[in-house]
Write a structure and sequence with these properties.
597 residues; alpha/beta; eight-stranded mixed sheet
């Protein structure tokens, strides 16, 4: 049976915020003409929100909401879906529904014949797809967010499977379709992008199962103290909008900035200062091959969510390949530069960040050719750059004069060098990572990945990138330093030998695991299993340890808390070993005691 909320929900109108949108039209997938309201910020490269209404409603549902989103920097496209009518807040007629003849279908439903209701609701999905396609062909190339309300909150859960969606906002989603009581949860189970679910004050039971089903851990559930149903709760209590605004803050457009290098080049950049209490500023430098700051557009929200401010610049060597025009290259005109020539751009970026945020922790992040340049930057500015991330650091003839190897050996601050597995068949790549590891730097090979920082971009990789993200976030957290007492050559109770370094754990049978992070506070470390271990290759291990104060010559003991986790996140949240009972606290067995060899 059709939930009556899908047809008859009535709410009290709120105060109208005066702003006249541009009314536009375009065709749905099946040729039906769609009417929509377009609210623009003036920058089509900025983020866009696709706003879909509830049943018995229209694009007018967002007349009081969209202007506030525009004020936050979001373009908004509020769409008349074919399942709807005149909204109750601004009395805007749903013109798409009029063309489709939805009023007749509602009359039939009220008379007891609901045979055309659900087919029409599901056909409204075509209107959503067409709306996103229209934006793509109309020059809106920024981040893409979708908002659903009631019935459309259910259907937007499917959109990330069929179109690029950077975030999902869903108000009052539920398993409304009685013929399949798990349909929405299955769609939600495929969502890998940040998801915000809002619910009315008495709708926790309705929406919480859908929230639990959402695959990503980057999700938020907000149950309103005041507010009944759908996106209209944003009109009923200011706290509901403020809560949404906090979620949206990671997707807001950056400040456009520029500064001049020592050799007179004007460098343009995107400055993201959304973090309320920043843990530091990450300087993001792109790869070559015609790239620009656009390489980081889809990665920036994740870093902002983790409380980092960001500066992504257009270096003088690049172009438009990864999603935005390189303004620095355009400004330089006909001038041609080598990769090494771009180094002053990094120095100028460092000066800019220090001027903007005196005393801030500064992190340098490079991709391909800039991954080599950030090593030079950090080596020459070790008191200014706290740590370095190098994705697919370039080498060879093109980097002559600024090779990463010339500077990595001098780096004293933490460095992580990352490569996708697809690049490891090159002898030079394997030798490079071995050299970095021998110098005491952390290395990581992403099983799923492509060249440069794009190894973090799920859309470009085409497969899950979460393990790589977790490695990066662990490194950025600064919790990777190993306790001095646990580094060295050891022997356990049974005479088995171990070698533990900052970045590796070698135990019996010569199995060597890659240490991703140390957590001294919680006395645990996370490791990726030896790729040569056929049984557990590609899986993850967590080791918990405990100090032994009165058991000489044994100084500490460890437990394999888990050794077959499917993901780094799964290993990280595994139930800790019981350190209070070292004789039985390791999954029913004793901890293994360790002494110096």
């Amino acid at each position: 049976m059709l939930n009556k909320a899908l047809i008859f929900l009535s709410l009290t109108p709120s105060a109208h915020i005066a702003q006249t949108p541009e009314q536009i039209s375009y065709q749905s997938i099946d040729g039906l003409e769609i009417t929509a309201d377009l609210y623009e910020t003036g920058d089509r490269s900025g983020p866009i929100v696709f706003a879909f209404h509830q049943s018995g409603s229209s694009r007018g549902e967002y007349r009081d909401i969209a202007p506030r989103l525009v004020d936050l920097g979001f373009n908004v496209l509020a769409v008349d879906l074919r399942w709807g009518a005149t909204d109750r807040w601004n009395r805007v007629v749903n013109e798409t529904a009029v063309r489709f003849g939805t009023d007749q279908i509602v009359e039939e439903a009220e008379a007891g014949d609901r045979s055309r209701v659900w087919p029409t609701i599901f056909e409204a999905y075509n209107d959503m797809l067409a709306s996103m396609d229209w934006a793509s062909t109309s020059g809106f190339d920024g981040l893409r967010l979708v908002i659903g309300s009631s019935f459309s909150a259910m259907i937007v859960m499917k959109l990330p499977q069929d179109r690029r969606v950077d975030a999902v906002v869903s108000y009052s989603p539920g398993e409304y379709y009685s013929d399949d009581s798990t349909l929405v949860s299955r769609w939600a189970g495929e969502i890998g992008v940040p998801t915000y679910i809002g619910a009315g004050s008495d709708e926790r039971e309705l929406s919480q199962p859908v929230f639990r089903a959402v695959r990503t851990q980057r999700k938020t559930l907000h149950v309103a103290e005041v507010g009944r149903h759908g996106a209209s709760i944003l009109l009923e209590d200011e706290r509901n909008f403020q809560n949404l605004e906090r979620f949206l803050s990671a997707f807001r457009p950056p400040e456009q900035v520029s500064f001049t290098t020592g050799d007179g080049i004007t460098v343009f950049g995107d400055n993201y200062s959304q973090a309320e209490t920043p843990r530091g500023t990450i300087m993001l430098f792109h790869q070559g091959g015609g790239s620009s700051r656009g390489e980081y557009r889809e990665l920036a929200p994740r870093l902002i969510e983790n409380d980092f401010n960001l500066l992504a610049i257009d270096q003088r060597r690049g172009g438009t390949r990864l999603g935005s025009s390189n303004r620095t290259v355009v400004g330089a005109g006909e001038a041609e530069f080598s990769y090494c020539d771009a180094y002053p751009d990094l120095e100028a970026a460092l000066d800019f960040v220090e001027t903007r945020a005196p005393g801030a922790t500064i992190i340098a992040w490079g991709s391909s050719y800039s991954a080599a340049l950030v090593m030079k930057l950090a080596a020459l500015n070790e008191d200014r750059v706290s740590r370095v991330l190098a994705f697919s650091p370039a080498s060879g003839e093109a980097m002559e004069g600024c090779e990463s190897g010339d500077y990595a050996v001098a780096l004293k601050n933490p460095l992580i060098a990352l490569r996708p597995a697809s690049e490891m068949h090159f002898d030079a790549v394997r030798d490079q990572l071995t050299e970095f590891a021998d110098q005491g730097h952390q290395t990581f090979v992403a099983r799923n990945g492509v060249h440069g920082s794009s190894m973090l971009n799920t859309r470009r990789v085409g497969r899950d990138t979460e393990d790589t993200w977790q490695v990066v976030l662990q490194f950025l957290s600064g919790s990777h330093e190993a306790p001095e007492a646990l580094i060295g050559e050891f022997e356990d109770d049974y005479g088995e030998r171990y070698s533990v370094t900052q970045h590796s754990w070698s135990g019996p049978g010569s199995a060597t695991m890659e240490i991703v992070s140390w957590d001294a506070e919680n006395r645990s470390l996370l490791l990726r299993n030896d790729p040569e271990d056929a049984s557990y290759s590609g899986m993850w291990t967590r080791i918990d340890w405990v100090e032994l104060d009165e058991m000489p010559p044994f100084e500490w003991a460890y437990c394999f808390t888990t050794y077959d986790a499917e993901s780094l996140q799964e290993a990280a949240v595994a139930t800790p070993a019981d350190r209070e009972n070292p004789r039985t606290g390791c999954n029913g067995f004793p901890f293994s005691r360790m002494k110096q060899r």
